[in-house]
Amino acid sequence: MFLTRLSSPFAQLLVTNVFFSLLLGVPLSVSCPQRCQCTDHSGAMAVLCSSRHLEEIPQDIPKDAVYLKLDANKITKIPNNAFKHLNHLEELDLSRNAIEKIDMAAFKGVADGLQMLDLSNNHIQSIPKEALVKLNAKIRLSNNPWHCECTLQEVLWEVKLDPESVNEITCQTSVREEYVGKPLVQILDSGVNFCNIRQKTTDIAMFITMFGWFTMVITYVVYYVRHNQEDARKHLEYLKSLPSTQVPKETISTIL
């Protein structure tokens, strides 16, 4: 009834926004990303963007967001500085997406306050160590098609993994075939060091390269000597074929 007394369409729209803001418990100053819902969760801003068919991270997430749920979307990449303005962020859920690539500075700006980061159930095969090492948050990396090698091992050494999901980090591919399908933590606990494996592989490659060069040099020397011997033999036979009066003995002795 109150709305019908307002003659201005702008005034009607303003009152409508006030009504829904009060209903949802959201301050009027908050601009919520399209297709997302912003609510007050125990006095903290929660931005809920779950299952909204998002293909990238929204640009207009409120800077006072404390909880951000982007799970169950179609996000494929976390670019640099994607969350740099979210200084109050404590929980970030990126699970059940199609994430394949995470840039080195993807989580720059949220390192200090972030308490939980969920990257489980994505398409991540590798991740730069620099993207996670400065985070104090518990991190979930389970159910991704990980390639187990030195870089991933270094990531696990540096970050704080969520203990409930640590055994679900398995090797879909690996530098060694026998580790495929096994939990990475179990492999590392058995004493395997992927960084040593990489060093040994590099050493073997260098040895093979050096051996190849050495073989080429030896082959060239042998060819050179044999070629000169053949030329010398032909020259000697030529000299012997000449009349003896024309071939000084000193020349033959020098050749021999």
Automatic annotation (TrEMBL):
Subcellular localization, as worded in the UniProt entry: Membrane
Membrane topology annotation: Single-pass membrane protein
Record-annotated LRRNT domain positions: 31-67
PROSITE patterns: LRR, PROKAR_LIPOPROTEIN
Top-rank taxon, per record: Eukaryota
Gene Ontology CC annotation, any one: plasma membrane
Signal peptide limits: 1-25
Keywords: Leucine-rich repeat, Membrane, Repeat, Signal, Transmembrane, Transmembrane helix
Transmembrane segments: 204-225
Family designation: Belongs to the LRRC3 family.
PANTHER family named among the record's database cross-references: ANTIGEN BSP, PUTATIVE-RELATED, LEUCINE-RICH REPEAT-CONTAINING PROTEIN 3
Protein name in UniProt: Leucine-rich repeat-containing protein 3
Gene label: LRRC3
